[in-house]
Amino acid sequence: MRAQDSATAATTIAVTTTARPGGTVRTSGTVGASGTGRTSGARSTGGDATAPARRAAADTSGSRTDPLPRGTLLAALGVLSFSLTFPSTVWGLESFGPWSLVAVRSTLAALVAGAFLLVGRVPLPERRHWAGLAVVAGGVVIGFPLLTTLALQTSTTSHAAVVVGLLPLTTAAFAALRTRRRPSRTFWFAAVSGAVVVLAFTVQQSGGAVSKGDLYLFGALLVCAAGYTEGGRLARLMPGWHVVGWALILCLPLMAVGSAVALSLEPVHLNAHGVIGLVWVAAGSTFFGLYVWYRGMASIGIPKASQLQLAQPLLTLVWSVVLLGETLPLAAPIAAVAVLVCIAVTQRAKS
């Protein structure tokens, strides 16, 4: 209905009518000082035939696809990228010294990340996130590449791969301590079983001796697990590539200076293998691999994502044969089946 003007005070007008057998309509109007009538209506749903359709549309717009399959795929892409790191590092060592290779790869990866951050106009992280980014930078950008590169000077790719196969269990332990979440007993049983298989494989191949290269690799496990755990936590608060990008940028000044110093002290003999290896460890492993890896961890959780890495040493063994011509150990197929069973159990276990 239309309210006539000239009123100086607000007046409420209410009319109740029966619209149809299923319900009633109540309309109230408020006439303001300007003379304009405002109405607000509330209808019961008894005779509203469109209500179910509206509710269905709301449910559809608010629903999301289950993130678990996508998260698992992203984490698996990260594992595939990481599996090529050791063979690429061996190639890179054909042209560069160990310190030069680590410094240059981190510098190049930081430049790639910086370009993406600038194009995307990504704002600086909040102050409370910088401590976590420093852990990611120290563990994943500097510590793990440096220690594994030093180890690969004396260890074969296949040997290093199976030692680093302990990384999933180490990461799960760090995650449990950091996030105060406790995976189920089934999860831990499968994770420990997979680690035992990898450890037995390592000991069998090395003859039971622990070398200097093994010590570098065990140190790499600790710092990398810390970096993965903190990066996975941050990837729940910001996009995964932001985590990787800002961690790399944080290291850029140190790595740029390190590159200049190392290149002046270590000889450089460029060849195709060396250049390809450097490009892959910089753009493939350090940037792309960490990007998809952290996004995967944010979707399916740190413990489950870390167990996908049980397949990484076996993939690296394949690359070591195909790319480096190393001899594949006879125990590898047995270890592959056992590890894949452990992966299946951990992915189904409640965490």
Secondary structure elements and pairings:
Layout: E1 11-20, E2 23-31, E3 37-43, H1 51-62, H2 67-83, H3 85-92, H4 98-119, H5 130-151, H6 157-163, H7 167-179, H8 185-206, H9 212-234, H10 240-265, H11 272-300, H12 302-308, H13 312-324, H14 332-348
Description:
With 351 residues, the chain is mainly α. The protein has helices spanning 51-62, 67-83, 85-92, 98-119, 130-151, 157-163, 167-179, 185-206, 212-234, 240-265, 272-300, 302-308, 312-324, 332-348, and strands at 11-20, 23-31, 37-43. A 3-stranded antiparallel sheet has the order 1-2-3, with no helix packed on it. Helix 2 (67-83) runs parallel beside helix 13, helix 3 (85-92) runs parallel beside helix 13 and helix 11 (272-300) runs antiparallel to helix 12. The termini are far apart.
Characteristics:
14 helices; three-stranded antiparallel β-sheet; 351 residues; mainly alpha; 68% helix; globular
Uncertain spans, ≥5 residues at pLDDT below 50?
A: 1-67
As a whole number of angstroms, the C-alpha radius of gyration is: 29 Å
Overall mean confidence score, pLDDT? 79
Number of helices: 14
Share of residues in strands: 5-15%
